[in-house]
Design goal:
binds flavin-adenine dinucleotide; six-stranded antiparallel β-sheet; 2 domains; 15 helices; FAD/NAD(P)-binding domain; alpha+beta
Length: about 475
């Protein structure tokens, strides 16, 4: 093992959404900053993220005459998530979100046309406080990059790329450094503070299974989101929770049935596309109102099905006339039927059911009842209103879908100064955390309040660098 015992003021694990602002502000305050990044590029999940952020009381809102306040934002998030956001960290992130957006504007971040909005793919806020740039998460990275890279080239931030933190060094109950792998060697770095901004674990199926065994992983995320920071902190007694608040995104499929990280999205969010099809569960029965306007209703309905699984069922009339149900080019989509194990096509309903592995009589009954509802203009079971066509024209089609995720629910607990906490509430000295390593659900609760993962990641990282860390 080689030792790099330069006494760093701050050692930051990960150069993503949260780690970059933490490093920028700590370096600008004069700290000797070491940043280790497992990937060979900076940006982390910003390379994947839609980059949608939320903040109340911004200059943009003022210009547009939108009245808003952090309290209204906080209340809105708690309304959307049924009061399951962590009140302390939620307030910290929300109270400081507008300053983050203003800082991004100072760095050159530009809003895309149409932004701010009240809601896009998530449950809408009561006012327009939802912001994004022209190029998803990359717009945010592009704004951060020049300042960050200048600090690196001025030796204010020592960036060690392709360097993976493996564990924390703890002596006398205090965190004093990290062990990392670099060029195949184990190295040791020592410093006064260690900041975990290493992201979530949606790319680690073993960890996922440990926390949410009932919800098989189907994820679309940064492959470096492997939960290393959470595991390292847990080894030293950090409290980890939040998995019980998991909510899936509606809905996706595994492109490779054996690969939980091969998630792809169906285009089923009700605010983007109204369902022409019916959804049935693994028993072949309808289980929800497919045209319900609330995305939250959709997500919870699917979450409550065994293994978060359902089938989307339609006939050729619907397939030809309805808006696209995936984001694939039409020929690629059509080629899936017959070539992909989740996409089924048959000349009759019993044959379709057989392929799907479900009871043909039950599926037939679900379709007959739906067709009756279409004819009557009334769905007595679920109250569905949007029913344009019966399912009666072969060939018939079904697609296996499941709850998909871009984030991981559980994470390490921290206090209002972002110091990592043990199970008993005591502080692990010199150890801080921000971003998704805190658990996606800590800042969004059980629900999706728009922008409430990326904005807190940026904001809490910024606050650490700006004032919460001392050396
Ligand atoms: C497809 C997608 C769309 C999304 N859209 C939105 C959205 O619109 N709005 C929103 O609010 N949220 C969104 N999110 C979530 C949000 O982008 C993330 O939660 C947030 O970016 C996480 O920031 P972070 O700093 O915690 O982690 P990251 O940005 O992932 O940064 C962590 C960094 O740590 C590095 N790292 C990991 N392990 C180690 C290790 N052992 N040693 C060294 N480095 C390590 C990683 O390589 C990475 O660079 C989305 C996520 C995805 C995947």
């Amino acid at each position: 093992m080689s030792s790099k015992n330069k006494n760093w003021d701050v050692i930051i694990i990960g150069a993503g959404s949260s780690g970059i602002p933490a490093a920028i502000f700590a370096a600008q305050r004069g700290a000797k900053v070491l940043q280790v990044e497992a990937d060979n590029r900076i940006g982390g999940t910003l390379h994947w993220s839609s980059g949608q952020m939320a903040a109340a009381g911004t200059s943009v809102q003022a210009k547009l005459g939108i009245e808003d306040s952090p309290q209204a934002h906080y209340d809105d998030v708690q309304r959307i998530t049924d009061n399951t956001m962590d009140p302390v960290l939620g307030k910290l992130a929300i109270d400081n979100a507008a300053d983050t957006i203003e800082w991004l504007f100072e760095l050159g971040f530009e809003l895309a046309p149409g932004s701010p909005e009240a809601g896009v793919v998530h449950e809408p806020y009561t006012v327009r406080r939802y912001y994004w740039g022209n190029n998803e998460g990359i717009s945010v990275l592009d704004a951060l990059r020049p300042t960050y890279e200048k600090l690196v080239s001025d030796n204010k931030i020592s960036l060690q790329m392709s360097t993976k933190m493996n564990s924390l060094i703890v002596e006398n109950d205090e965190v004093v450094g990290i062990h990392a792998t670099q060029d195949g060697l184990t190295v040791e770095y020592r410093g006064k503070n260690v900041v975990l901004t290493s992201g979530g674990y949606a790319a680690n199926n073993d960890l996922w299974q440990e926390f949410n065994p009932e919800q098989p992983l189907c994820s679309f995320c940064n492959p470096y989101s492997r939960g290393d920071g959470m595991v390292a902190a847990r080894e030293h007694g950090a409290k980890v929770d939040g998995e019980d608040k998991f909510l899936c995104t509606f809905a996706g499929w595994r492109e490779d049935a054996d690969d939980p990280l091969s998630g792809q999205f169906f285009n089923l969010a009700p605010n983007q596309r109204r369902a022409w099809e019916i959804y049935v569960n693994a028993s072949g029965e309808r289980f929800m109102r497919e045209d319900h306007p609330s995305i939250d209703y959709h997500e919870n309905s699917l979450l409550n099905q065994p293994n978060m699984k359902m089938f989307i069922v339609c006939d050729s009339g619907i397939l030809q006339n309805a808006p696209p149900i995936t984001y694939l080019p039409e020929d690629e989509f059509k080629a899936k039927f017959g070539s992909h194990p989740n996409f089924y096509k048959a000349d009759s309903i019993p044959e379709l059911a057989e392929q799907m592995g479900i009871d043909g009589a039950i599926l037939q009954n679900s379709i007959d009842e739906f067709n009756q509802s279409v004819r009557n203009g009334k769905d007595p079971t679920f109250g569905r209103e949007f029913m344009l066509r019966e399912i009666n024209q072969g060939p018939y089609y079904a697609m296996g879908a499941q709850g998909i995720t871009v984030c991981s629910p559980a994470g390490i607990a921290a206090d209002e100064n972002l110091r990592v906490l043990r199970e008993d509430g005591s502080v692990i000295k010199n150890l801080y955390a921000a971003g998704e390593v805190l658990g996606f659900t800590r800042l969004t609760g059980k629900g999706f309040a728009g922008g409430m993962s990326l904005t807190p990641a940026l904001t809490l990282g910024r606050l650490l660098g700006q004032k919460l860390l001392s050396w």
